[in-house]
Automatic annotation (TrEMBL):
It comes from Muntiacus muntjak. This is Ig-like domain-containing protein. It holds the Pfam family I-set. Coiled coil: none annotated. PANTHER family: IMMUNOGLOBULIN.
Amino acid sequence: MSKAPPTRKPAAPPPGCTLDINDPQVQKAAILIQASYQDHRSRKELREKGPPRELEPLKNVVLLECSAAKLTCSVSAFPDPFIRWGKDRKELRNGPKYRYVFKDPDVVALVVRDRELADLSQYSINVSNPFGQCSDSARILGEVPAKIQKGQDNTKARNGATVTLIAEILGEPAPDMGWAKNGEDTEEDYRVFFEIDSTSTTLTIRQATLEDSGNYEEFVEMDHPSLAWMWPERDPQTRRPGRSPGRVGQTTLLHLA
């Protein structure tokens, strides 16, 4: 049979300290100080871990035929954040067309229904709570067949003039663009060069000479040849023999005198 452990006497206060740690008022004050420290530590952790941050960013998606598009990302925040989706800097409301989706624990998504051409645009997400915010953006892309929306009319110019030929382009994703003369791709130099933006291409010929006369073809190429060209009898844009099946063009006659 073991002996009961001896009763431990409370430790004496440090020299110069007159507080009695056995005093109920002193013990109550110590409890309040400890609770205050714990609250401070909790607030510090919230400031460090509470602000929203992205775990997985938004990515561009391709809008396929007969399907909805879904933009997805993962976020971390505490307390739970407020989510806003936008398109072209305008907020999108949760509803039949645009549906907000939340999946535990941290996945948020926007589903775009009723596929239409106007859905091909830039979308953004904004995540906010009392401790901060974060944002990201991505595009919904679509497979729109490459086409020359408007070609250059036949052109006449004087010898020595500067000639510009312009073609407006349609296609999504943006197709490759270029120019050819009499069936041969145009080689650029200081005098003959072309510029490209998202919707058009411009061929510039400086100090044009009689040798610059000929048939100029503005063309576009896509990675989806089955969608990229039209039959000649249905559209003036034709696929040239020996060219890539994803390449379409329209011809302009340039005459210099």
